[in-house]
Design a protein that fits this description.
By secondary structure, this protein is mainly α. It contains 1 helix and no strands.
Length: 41
C-alpha cells in the first residue's frame, strides 16, 4: 500500500516538474514572440 502511494507521489512530482518546465518554456517563447512582434510593427 505505502509502496503504491509513494509511486503515485513520485508520479505527481514528476508531472508537476514537467508542467513547470514546459510553462517556463512557453512563457519565454510567448514573451520573445511579443517582443519580435513589437520590433517588426
Amino acid at each position: 500500500m505505502t509502496f503504491v502511494k509513494d509511486n503515485k507521489m513520485w508520479l505527481i512530482k514528476d508531472v508537476s516538474v514537467i508542467l513547470k518546465s514546459k510553462g517556463e518554456f512557453f512563457w519565454k517563447g510567448f514573451i520573445i514572440g511579443i517582443g519580435v512582434t513589437f520590433l517588426f510593427h
